[in-house]
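pls design
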C-alpha cells in the first residue's frame, strides 16, 4: 500500500573482469541477495573482482511512461481491494470478529518469503528476460485473485442452492481471492522496479521512478473514484448484473491493458546473453565492485587505488517513494560466491543495526499500524457508523442499500486521500527548510492522529470527508520521510568516517530499507490479528479510528523522544 536506496548495484548489467589478489570496494546493496554471516562478516565482507560499467541507451519519456503504466493498473486494483474487501466479506456472511484476519495471511507469507522470491528473479534464465516472466505470472495471479474476490459470491450463488452451504463456500472463495490478489500485488512491485533498473541507464532510473510514483497516485485516485460511483442503477450495472461486476470489469480491463503495455515497453536482455552494441553505450569508467556487491547491508572494504578518481554522480532526491519500493531488486551477474538473503539473515542484520536505525523501524511500525487500522476498514466505518447501515441485512433491504451508499461515499473519502497525498508531497519540499525531516515526521503523525480523533468524535458526512485529507498527509509522510532519514544518517556516517580518516566505507543502506519494508508487513499482521478482536469486544467499528488515533499519537511521542535529529 510504497523507496530503494540509490546505489551503484542498481546500475545496468555490468561486464565482469576477474582481477584476483586485490581488495575492492563493495557497492551499496540490494535486498534480493543477502548475507547471512556473522556480525563481523556482515561489516567487512568482500572479494576481488572488477566490473566494467555498460549503460543501456537513453530511454525516451514515452518509453518510461509506458513502463510505469503498470503501476497505474496495480494501484487501481489495490484501491478497489482496499475499498471493497471488508464490505464484500461482511456481505457474504463473514463474522465481524474474523473479518480482519483476511489481512493476516498475505503479509505473513510476504514477511517470510519476500527475500526468497526477490532473489529468485535474479537467477531466472528465461529468453524473455529475468523479470518479465515473474511479472507476467504474478500479474495473472492478481487477475485471478480479483476475479474470485469480486465474483465469488455470484458464482457460488449460481452453483449452490443450499443457503448455509452457499455462505460457507462464498466466504472461502472470496477470502482465497483476496489473499491471492494481495500476495501477488505485494510481490510484483520488486520485479517491476528491478526491470526498470535493468533496462535503464542511471540517469533514466530517477526519471522512471518519478513516473512510477506519479502513475501510482493517479491509479489510486481513479480506483477509488470508480468505487465511489453508483453503478448498480446504471445501464452497464443492469447489463453486467451488479455493482461489483461493473467494478470488476473496469479493474480487469485496466490491469490487463496496462500490464501488457508494461511487458512490451522496453526490451529486456536475458541473463547470460551478451548484450548487442545497440543495447549498450560505451563504458564510461571502470567500476570496482565486490563479488558480494549485491550483499544486502554489508560495508565497503578498502578500495583499490585508481589513477583518477571516480566521481559519485548519485543525486540526492527528496522523493524516496520509488526507492523504498525497490528493495527486492536487481542483483547483477550472479556468481557462486553470492549468498541469497534468507529470513534468518535478514533478522540477524536488523538486530545488528545501530540504535537510531532500530528506533526508526519502531516509529515506522507505529505509523503503519495506525494508518492501516484506518485505511483497511474506512469504507466499512462509513457504511456502519456514519451512514448507520447494516452489512448483514438482506441485499434487497433498505438497511443494506444505506450501507452500500456509505461505502461509496467512503471511496470518495479515499479518493480525497490519494489527491491530498500527491499535493502534500510537494508541500513537504517547502516545509523541509523550516522544520527539518524530524519536524515533518512528527507533524505527519500528529495531524493524522488529530484528524482521526475528530472523525471518531464527530462521525458526520461532511466533517469526515474534509478530514480525509489528513490521511494523505500521513501517507506521504510514511512513503518518504523515514527513507530520507536513512539517507541522512548515511551521509552523516560518511562525513564522520572522512573526519576520522577511516578508509572503510559507510554502512550499506540495503538492510535498513528492507527493515522498514518489513515493518509495513508486520503492521499488517498486527492489524489483522488484533483489530477484529477489538471490534468484537467494543461491539462497534468506531474502534478502528480510535485505534488509528491512539497508535499515531503514540508514534508522535516516540518520534519526539527517540528519533535522531539531523540538520
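designed seq:
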Amino acid at each position: 500500500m510504497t523507496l530503494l536506496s540509490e546505489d551503484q548495484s542498481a546500475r545496468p548489467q555490468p561486464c565482469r573482469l576477474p582481477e584476483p589478489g586485490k581488495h575492492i570496494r563493495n557497492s551499496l546493496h540490494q535486498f534480493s541477495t543477502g548475507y547471512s554471516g556473522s556480525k563481523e562478516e556482515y561489516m567487512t565482507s568482500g572479494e576481488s573482482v572488477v566490473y566494467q560499467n555498460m549503460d543501456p541507451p537513453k530511454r525516451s519519456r514515452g518509453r518510461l511512461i509506458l513502463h510505469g503504466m503498470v503501476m497505474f493498473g496495480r494501484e487501481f486494483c489495490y484501491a478497489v481491494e482496499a475499498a471493497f474487501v471488508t464490505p464484500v466479506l461482511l456481505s457474504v456472511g463473514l463474522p465481524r470478529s474474523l473479518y480482519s484476519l483476511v489481512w493476516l495471511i498475505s503479509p505473513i507469507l510476504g514477511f517470510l518469503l519476500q527475500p526468497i522470491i526477490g532473489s529468485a528473479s535474479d537467477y531466472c534464465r528465461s529468453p524473455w528476460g529475468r523479470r518479465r516472466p515473474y511479472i507476467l505470472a504474478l500479474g495473472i495471479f492478481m487477475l485471478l485473485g480479483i476475479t474470485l474476490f469480486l465474483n465469488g459470491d455470484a458464482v457460488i450463488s449460481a452453483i449452490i442452492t443450499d443457503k448455509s452451504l452457499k455462505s460457507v463456500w462464498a466466504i472461502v472463495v472470496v477470502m482465497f481471492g483476496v489473499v491471492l490478489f494481495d500476495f501477488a500485488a505485494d510481490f510484483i512491485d520488486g520485479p517491476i522496479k528491478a526491470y526498470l533498473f535493468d533496462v535503464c541507464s542511471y540517469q533514466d532510473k530517477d526519471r522512471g521512478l518519478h513516473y512510477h510514483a506519479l502513475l501510482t497516485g493517479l491509479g489510486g485516485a481513479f480506483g477509488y473514484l470508480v468505487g465511489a460511483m453508483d453503478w448498480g442503477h446504471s445501464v452497464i450495472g443492469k447489463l453486467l448484473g451488479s455493482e461489483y461486476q461493473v467494478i470488476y470489469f473496469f479493474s480487469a480491463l485496466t490491469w490487463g491493458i496496462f500490464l501488457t503495455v508494461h511487458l512490451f515497453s522496453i526490451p529486456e536482455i536475458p541473463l547470460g546473453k551478451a548484450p548487442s552494441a545497440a543495447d549498450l553505450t560505451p563504458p564510461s569508467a571502470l567500476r570496482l565492485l565486490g563479488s558480494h556487491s549485491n550483499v544486502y547491508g554489508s560495508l565497503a572494504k578498502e578500495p583499490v587505488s585508481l589513477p583518477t578518481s571516480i566521481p559519485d554522480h548519485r543525486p540526492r532526491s527528496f522523493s524516496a517513494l520509488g526507492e523504498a519500493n525497490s528493495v527486492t531488486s536487481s542483483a547483477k551477474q550472479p556468481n557462486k560466491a553470492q549468498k541469497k538473503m534468507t529470513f534468518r539473515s535478514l533478522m540477524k542484520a536488523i538486530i545488528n543495526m545501530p540504535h537510531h536505525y532500530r528506533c526508526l523501524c519502531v516509529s515506522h511500525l507505529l505509523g503503519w499500524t495506525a494508518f492501516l487500522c484506518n485505511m483497511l476498514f474506512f469504507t466499512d466505518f462509513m457504511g456502519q457508523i456514519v451512514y448507520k447501515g447494516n452489512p448483514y441485512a438482506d441485499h434487497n433491504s433498505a438497511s443494506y442499500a444505506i450501507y452500500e451508499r456509505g461505502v461509496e461515499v467512503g471511496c470518495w473519502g479515499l479518493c480525497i486521500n490519494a489527491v491530498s497525498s500527491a499535493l502534500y508531497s510537494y508541500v513537504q519540499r517547502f516545509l523541509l527548510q523550516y522544520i527539518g525531516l524530524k519536524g515533518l515526521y512528527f507533524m505527519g503523525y500528529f495531524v493524522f492522529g488529530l484528524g482521526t480523533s475528530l472523525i471518531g468524535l464527530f462521525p458526520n458526512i461532511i466533517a469526515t470527508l474534509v478530514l480525509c485529507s489528513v490521511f494523505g498527509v500521513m501517507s506521504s509522510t510514511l512513503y518518504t520521510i523515514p527513507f530520507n532519514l536513512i539517507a541522512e544518517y548515511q551521509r552523516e556516517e560518511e562525513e564522520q568516517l572522512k573526519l576520522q580518516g577511516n578508509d572503510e566505507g559507510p554502512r550499506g543502506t540495503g538492510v535498513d530499507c528492507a527493515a522498514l519494508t518489513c515493518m509495513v508487513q508486520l503492521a499488517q499482521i498486527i492489524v489483522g490479528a488484533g483489530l477484529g478482536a477489538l471490534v468484537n469486544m467494543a461491539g462497534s467499528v468506531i474502534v478502528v479510528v480510535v485505534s488509528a488515533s491512539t497508535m499515531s499519537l503514540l508514534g508522535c511521542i516516540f518520534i519526539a523522544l527517540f528519533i535522531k535529529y539531523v540538520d
